[in-house]
Amino acid sequence: MVIGPDFVWSHMPKTGGTSTKRMFDIVCGERPDMYMDHGIHNINKHDNITIKDSKVNLGLNTKHRIMGFRQLPTWIISIAYSSAAVIPVTSYAILNGIVRTIYPVTDADFGLDGGADCRIVEEKQHFKQHTPDSLLTHFMCGRVDSWLRMEKLSSDFISVAGQFVSISGQQKEEIQNTYLHQREYDRRVRRWFRSKRSMKQVYDLNPVWAQLEYELYGSLMSDKSTSWDATSRREARPVGARACTKFVS
To answer: Are the beta carbons of 2 and 36 closer than 8 angstroms?
Structure first.
């Protein structure tokens, strides 16, 4: 998390947070009035605003809230691989736990190999309480004022963070050249979601994520009629402030 005098950026997992932190380091890493959680393995870096405010008491509810976001199918694949690195089952089993155990679809709809690993996750129900929507709302804490799309991270960062910190021309160039920290894994969406039905069902069962993604990108990945490859995306519309106000209950 990064906390400035009038803004706070919270780090939802698998939304480009490590790269976003590097960008903040570029523009305000030396400022004494900034609070930052340093270190890629810092156990506090994924605190949501409510938890963090109970620790630091900096009035986070009054600050402009910024958070990262990405398209749902690519997030699911990323969290599957990330979880497989720390949980002793394969990434196929983790994806099975996030998708198939929660949603009533068949192996034929997803790129799942089945077998013992999948049965382990089905029996233990690792992710049944942690749907994408539940995690998103946990980190939103009622509202987010500005979003940083992972697919447009450098331009969104300059646009949003530039409202609160001065960004020089040289710093903009550094931000645009910031390496996007990513694990090595198979990112082909069609490798995992083998039918349009499977992708559409994931969106249908996560309406908060789906509505926000539509607002920020102008479409859902399941709307594409030709290719679901994560490398071919339609140009997204500019990020607007308070894009998810309607989700506040």
So the answer is: yes
The helix or strand, by DSSP H or E, that contains position 66, with its residue range, turns out to be: strand 64-69
Length of the chain: 249
- Per DSSP, the three-state class of 217 is helix
- Beta 35-36 vs 64-69: how paired, if at all? unpaired
pLDDT at position 114: 39
- Report which of 207, 56, 46 is spatially closest to residue 141, judged by C-alpha positions: 46
Tell me the pairing of strands 7-10 and 2-3: antiparallel
HSE at residue 29, side-chain half, CA atoms within 13 A, is: 10
Question: Could you tell me the maximum CA-CA distance found in the chain, to the nearest angstrom?
Answer: 54
* Rounded Cα gap, residues 172 and 17, in angstroms: 18
Q: Does residue 98 contact residue 205 with C-beta atoms inside 8 Å? A: no
Indicate the domain borders of the chain: 2-69+142-176, 72-132+185-247
pLDDT at 126: 41
CB under 8 Å to 184, separation ≥6 — which residues?
none
Distance CA(159)–CA(153), nearest Å, equals 10
Spatial distance between the Cα atoms of 192 and 169, rounded to a whole number of angstroms: 40
Under a CB-based contact definition with an 8 Å cutoff, are residues 244 and 222 in contact?
no
| Gap between the Cα atoms of 168 and 179, Å rounded | 19
**Can you give the pLDDT at residue 182?**
64
Spans in the chain with pLDDT lower than 50: 87-91, 97, 99-129, 226, 228-249
Alpha-carbon distance of 49 to 103, in angstroms, equals 30
Query: Residue 110's pLDDT is what?
Result: 41
Per-residue CA distances from 34 to 8, 27, 113, 148, 154 (Å): 10, 11, 47, 19, 20
